[in-house]
Amino acid sequence: MAVSGKSLAITVGIYAIILIVAVLLFSKWRLAKLTRKFYAPKRYVVTEGYPKPPPLATTFGGWVPQVFKMSEAEVIRCAGVDAAMYLKILRMGFELFLAVSFLVLVIILPINCTGDEVDNLIATNTTATNDATGEKYTFTSLDKTTISNIPSHSSMLWAHAVITWAVTFVAYWWLWKYNKEALRLRIFYLLNQPAGAESHTVLLQDVPGVAYGTIPNRADGTLLKIIPKSIKQKAFQQTEMLANKGMNIAKGVKVDVPIDLAKDTAADNAAAAAALSTGAINVEATTGRWEMRDEWVTAVNEIQANDGSVKAMVEGTLHRVYHDDLSAVHMVHDTSKLDPLVAEYEKRKQALTDMVDNYISLKRRGKELKVKQMTVVGATMGAWGKEKYGMKPKKVEALEFLRDRMTELRRAIREAQEEALEPGHVFPAAFATFRNRTSQVVAARTLMSEDLATWRCQGAPRAEEILWNNLGFRVWERAGRSLAMWAAFWAMAAFFMIPVTAVQGLLTMNSFLNFLNSIPIVGALVTGMLPGLALKIFLIIIPIIITIMNKWSGMVSVTQVDLGLISRYFIFQVITVFLGSFIAGTFANQLDQFIHDPGSIVTLIGTSAPQTAFFFMTYLLIGAFLDSAFGLMRFIPLIIFWVKSRFLAGTERAKARLWQDQTMTYGTMLPDNTISILLGLVFCIICPVITPVACFYFAMQYLVWKYQLIYTYGNVYQTGGLLWMKVFDQCMVGLAFLHLMMVAILGVKKSVGPPIFCAILWIFDIMFTIAVHKRFWRPQECLSLISAAEMDAKEAATLGAPGKGADEEVRQRYLSPSFKFDEAEHDQVLEEAERMRKVVVEGAEDEKLFAQEAEASVHSSVADEAEGRVTAARTDDTAAAGADLEAGARETEAFQDTVEQGGPGSFRSVTLSHYEDASEEMRGAKQA
C-alpha cells in the first residue's frame, strides 16, 4: 500500500507529540523526589571511588545543552571507553547524514520533482479500458519525490549515478576519520588497564592431557555415530594414555618387508636417520621418518612425571617458553555441582540481610517486631532438609531457618569446593598471568603449538565477564555447537519472513483497504504507522534468542556473547527487515498490476521499489521519535520500579538495589543503529527525503543515550572500543547494498551508462575495506610491543619491582567466584541474625544492634521515601550539588593526569588535545 503525504504528516505529528510529552515529563520527573534516583542513579551512589557524574541544571530543560556539551573525558570517566565509542558512532551517523542530506536534497530532489513519469502512470489508470488486462499502478504525491518520477532512458539518471559516487566518497571520508578515532580510544583503553588484570593475563584453551572435553568424555552414543572413525580412534587413544599412566614419545612402527631384505632396510633407515638427525631434530631410526611432536603424548608424560598435576604440566610448559616472566597459573575446574549451592547461598544471605534490615527499620519507627514465618519443603533441600523438616511443606521461623540453611550451605560448599579441585574435575583451560605486559602481548599473538587442536591462546577476558562453564569445551565441541547455532539462526531468519510478508500482504487486501479508506484518519494512521510498529514488535524477542544461542555455542565471556549478538542481529535485520520487507513490499505495492500483467515486472520494479523507501522511512521515524521517547522515559522499568519500591521492597537495602542495578548492553542497540545507517544509505538517492529523517534519528539517539550512559546505566562489560570493528563492517555492507540498489534501479530504467558507472564502486568498496582492515584492525587486537615495554618500565619504576602489581593482583582475580568465600562477612551476617532473633523471639534488648544505620553497609544516601523518613546522611541538595561539582572537577583533573602519565608520548600528544577542555570546563563551573 502506497504511503500518502497525508498519512505521513499525521504519523510524524503523532510521533512528535509523543516525543515532546516524553521530554516534558522527563524534565519534570528527573527532579521529582520519588523518581530522581531512578532517572539519575549514578548521582546518588556514594561508594568511595565511584565516578559520580556532574550535577545538571535544575531548570526545566536546562539538562539538554549541558548533556550535549559534556566532554569526551567526562563520558569516559563516568561511563567508560565503550560509552565514548558508542556516542562517537551516533555522532558519525548524524554528521554523515547531515552531509548526505545536503547533497541529495539540493541536487537529487529537484531533479526527481521535475520528472513526469508518475503523472503518466497515473494517467494510464484513467485511460485503461479493460480492468482485467490494462495497466493499473498505485501512486501518491509522495512518489514524485523519488526516482520513480524519472522516465526510462532519461539523461537525468546520470545525475543519480554521479551523486552515488559523491555519497560513497563522503561516507569513505567519515568512516576513515572515525576509524582513527576508534583506534585512538582503543589504545587509550589498553594503556590504562591496571597491572595484574587482563593486561597481564592470557587464556589457554584445549590444554592437552586432560580427559575433560574429549570426545569419549563428552559425546553420547548418537553423536559418536556422526563423528568420523579416524577422529574417534585418535580421541580414544588419547584418553587411553591417561589410564595407562602415559607412554613413551618415541614409538616403534611395524614395517612389513621381505625377510632377506629386512636387515639391509633397517641399516639403511638407521644410516639415513643418523645423517638427518641434528641436535634439535631426531629422525626415527627404525622407520627413517621424522614425526611431528605429539602434544598429547608429551603432556600425558609430563603430567605423570608431576604426580598427576595438570597445573604443574602447564606451568612447566609455559616456563620453558617465558622463563621467569610467568607469574602464576590458575587451572579452571568443573563447578557444575558447586555453582547451584553458591547461588542459593547468595540468595539466602540476601534474604536474611534484608530481614534484619527490615526489623531495624520497624524498630526505629516504633513499630512492633513480630516473628516472621515462612513455608519450606524439606524434600527440595536434600538429605539435610528431609531430616530437619520432613517431606511435607512446613511453616518455620524465618530467621532461624535462614541462619541454619546458610550454615548448612557453607558446609556443603566446602565439600563441593574440595571435590571440584580433584584432578578428575579439571577443565582443559587455564589462565596464565605474566609479570609484564610484553610477555602477555607475545603470548596472545603467537602460535603456541603447530597442533591447532591444543594450546589455543588468546588474551584473557575481564574476570567479571567470564562464562566459566563454557571453558570446558574443546575446539571440536565449540565448532560443532557453532555450526548447529548457525543452522538454527538461518532457520529462524527464514521462519521470520512469514510475519514480515504477512504484514505487507495485509496492507494490500482490497477489503481491508476499502474499510480503512472509509475512515480517512484511521487509514492514514495504519498506512503510516502499522507496518513499522509491527516489525518492531516482531523483533523484540530476537536478541534474547540469539544471546541464548551464543552462550550455548561456547563463547567464553559476556563481551564475546554481546559482540556476537551485534553481528548476528544485524545479519538477521538485513535478511528480514531490509531484504524481506523490500522484496515483499515491492510486489505488494503493485500486486494487482503484477498479477494481471506479469510481463511488466521490469517496469514494476523500477516504479514500485522506490515506493518501499517510504515504508523504511516510517521505520526510521519510529526509531527517531518513539524509541527516543521510550528510551528516555523508560515507562515499563519505571512502573516496575514504582511497584517494587512501594509494595515489594521492605528494606533500605532492597530499595537501593532497585535504582542502583540498572545496566545495559550494546548488542541490541548497535544493530538498530547500523541498520538505520544501511537504510539511510541505500535509499538516499532513490528517495532523498529519507536522509533528514535518518539525520534526526541519530541526533535524538545521541542526546538520549549520552544522558543514559553518563547518569543512569552501569556497564555489564567493557570491550575497550571493539564495538567499532563491527560497526565499520556493517556500514560497508550498507554501501555495498547502495551500489547494488542503484545498479538495479538504473538498469530497470533501461539506462546503459549509469548502472555501469555505479557498478565500478564495488571495486572501491573492496579496496577501501581491505585498506581499513590492514591499517586499523591489528593495532586494536592488543598493545604493540613498544607500548607494552614502555608501560612495563613505568610500572617497574612506580611499583618498585617488575611484576609486583601483577603478583599481588592475580592471586584471586582469575579464580572462579564459586571458590571465593568471605568468611568474615558470613560470620557477621549470622551473628546479626542471631542477635535479632533473640530480640524478636526472646524479647532481649540490644540497643547497639538498632543504633547502627541499616543502610550503612550499602549506601548512606538511601532514604525511606514511602515513610517520609530523612536520614542523617542526607544533606541539603544545594550544598550537595556544590560539593559534587568540586568533586567532579577533582576527578576530571585526576583523570587527565592519568592520561598524561599512562601512555607513550606519541599517543599522549594526540590524546591530550581531546581532554584539555574537560578541566577548563570544570574549573569554570567551580568559579561560577
TrEMBL record:
It is a multi-pass membrane protein. One of its GO terms (molecular function) is calcium-activated cation channel activity. Residues 8-177 form the CSC1/OSCA1-like N-terminal transmembrane domain. It holds the Pfam family PHM7_cyt. Signal peptide: none annotated. The chain crosses the membrane at residues 6-27, 94-111, 157-176, 483-507, 519-548, 569-588, 600-622, 629-649, 675-699, 727-746, 752-772. The keyword Glycoprotein does not apply. Residues 317-470 form the CSC1/OSCA1-like cytosolic domain. It is found in: Membrane. Coiled coil: none annotated. Residues 914-928 have a biased composition (Basic and acidic residues). InterPro entries: Csc1-like, CSC1/OSCA1-like_7TM, CSC1/OSCA1-like_cyt, CSC1/OSCA1-like_N. Keywords: Membrane, Transmembrane, Transmembrane helix, Transport. Residues 869-886 have a biased composition (Low complexity). Residues 860-928 are annotated as: Disordered. Residues 481-745 form the CSC1/OSCA1-like 7TM region domain. GO terms for cellular component: plasma membrane. PANTHER family: PROBABLE MEMBRANE PROTEIN DUF221-RELATED (PTHR13018), RE44586P (PTHR13018:SF5). Belongs to the CSC1 (TC 1.A.17) family. This is ERD4-related membrane.
